[in-house]
Amino acid sequence: MVSRRTLLIAAGTAGAAAAAAAAGDVALERSRDVEPGAPEPVDAQGRLVWRNWSGIQTAYPAARAAPASEDALASLLKTAQAPVRAVGAGHSFTALVPTQGTLVSLDNLDGVVSHDADRLQAVVRSGMRLGALGEALAGVGQEMFAQPDINKQSLGGALGTATHGTGAAQPALHGGAVAFRMVTAAGDVVTASPTQNADIFCAARVGLGAFGIITEVTLQNRKLSRIRKQLVLRPTQDALDDWPALKRAHRTAEIYIIPFTGTSAVITSDATDDPVVPRGPDAENQAVLDLKHLRDVFGPVPPLRRLAAKLALGGTPPQVAVDDGWKLLSNERPLRFNEMEYHLPAERQIDAAREILAAVERQRPDVFFPFELRCIAPDDAWLSPFYQRASGSVAVHAYYQNDYSFLFTLVEPILRRHGGRPHWGKLNSLRAADFARLYPRFKDAMQVRQTLDPSGKFLNDYLRRILVDA
Ligand SMILES: Cc1cc2nc3c(=O)[nH]c(=O)nc-3n(C[C@H](O)[C@H](O)[C@H](O)COP(=O)(O)OP(=O)(O)OC[C@H]3O[C@@H](n4cnc5c(N)ncnc54)[C@H](O)[C@@H]3O)c2cc1C
């Protein structure tokens, strides 16, 4: 998207004097930044700490377990110290997982159990990571309908928060779940599908680990397909005007609005029989670091920042790759961030995105991460943010070392005003009463939860806030 070389040239040609006046002689120094790795799993006192991916959630579980079978999980749940929280890959930004009680990793419940070639279905253990799942399904000629931006999540965690990809006809990942097995707080195993324990199927498919711990999921997949993925840079206003047509024309479509540049990256993909053109080395993280350098040098002077970006980005050719979808649709994201994402009624998405862009460009010159716009088909899971409505999502990111309070003070009010429902795994300030207003079947889902877990074994403080306390 943006190459370091072109950016540095741009920074130089846009005026060394201006750059120096704006931010001192930092451009070349900053260009040598490297992203620090994830922090150690022990704290400064040497205590074992659990952290989420971005580092803003931490916990000191009293006990940790990683059962290797459904039976082992069932006997654990009978006696485990509450609160008991399931953890997949720890990629949620909200405090869904933290526990001072028992942390149950699903890492040892891994792999594809069986597959049905005629029905294009597969039974998968819930701890399996999406990347490994994509590869295993490809081995039997299948693929999931949707694929998120990364593939590090566990299947159980992804379903648990309504993780999604993009595509007007593509439901979120739980849209592909046709049955699951779950161990309850009492240590009983229940099977749920549209014909067996249908209420549990509706309530716990997007279940936040609050109904029980899912061990196996039957996925309805489709035939493995090759796609042609294309990234094109376009003026932001044109890309936003064109969004309805882009969504209609392509199997997947998304827009990354690059603030302070007037430019957006439009990424689309479609099925093809073209010969393979492998994806090149991942340039997107370097591009985001380059945007950070632009911010560091020109941040206080937005017109210079826009000019430098225009010079750097102008003439960038489209990027094209052709391969199996599971290889192309997810990305590496070594650059850590915190994120808020809301799912809006599809017709409100672009207005909300324009408002957020204007507000950020007016008030927050420190922001440099692109905003992400995607689209998701409706489904019928009671706690799905896409419940009975075609949705458009708006995601805003903050570099993990930077202040993210603007997500709550500036961005969230706009997303709420446009009727948004927050991504369960991403930052938001909502409480149970808010969710009850946003979700028509919220009360029904909570009745199912209360029946399955009357003592609240699976509830931590955060879950009480968003599910129970009005
Ligand atoms: C870099 C990055 C990129 C992302 N991209 C996307 C994206 O493109 N689209 C999107 O929608 N989201 C995205 N997310 C959010 C992410 O997909 C969700 O937060 C997802 O829940 C993470 O999966 P996990 O395995 O890490 O789950 P965790 O965060 O470990 O757990 C999430 C929830 O699921 C529960 N849970 C986990 N396993 C089970 C189980 N077996 N049974 C019952 N409950 C369980 C946990 O208790 C918890 O409540 C992204 C996050 C990051 C950090």
Write a short abstract of this structure:
This protein has helices at 4-13, 16-23, 27-30, 70-79, 130-139, 155-160, 198-204, 236-249, 284-298, 302-313, 325-328, 349-363, 406-417, 432-438, 442-452, 461-468, and strands at residues 50-51, 58-59, 63-65, 84-87, 102-105, 112-116, 121-125, 142-143, 177-183, 189-192, 213-220, 222-223, 226-235, 252-258, 263-271, 319-324, 337-345, 371-376, 391-399, 421-422.
Per DSSP E runs of 2 or more residues, the count of β-strands stands at 20
Q: Radius of gyration, Cα only, in angstroms?
A: 22 Å
Counted by DSSP, the helix tally is: 16
Number of domains: 2
- Percent strand equals 15-25%
Relevant CATH superfamily of the largest domain: FAD-linked oxidases, C-terminal domain
Please summarize the sheet with the most strands. 8 strands, antiparallel
Q: Helix- and strand-based class?
A: alpha+beta
Write down the overall geometry: globular
Give the ligands present. Answer: flavin-adenine dinucleotide
What is the CATH architecture assignment of the largest domain?
3-Layer(aba) Sandwich
Q: Which strands sit side by side, in order, in the main sheet?
A: 16-13-15-14-18-19-17-20
Instruction: From the 3D structure, determine the CATH topology of the largest domain.
Output: Vanillyl-alcohol Oxidase, Chain A, domain 3
Mean pLDDT: 92
Distance between the termini: 45 Å
Which stretches are low in confidence, meaning pLDDT under 50 for 5 or more residues running? Answer: 1-33
CATH class of the largest domain: Alpha Beta
Helix content: 25-40%
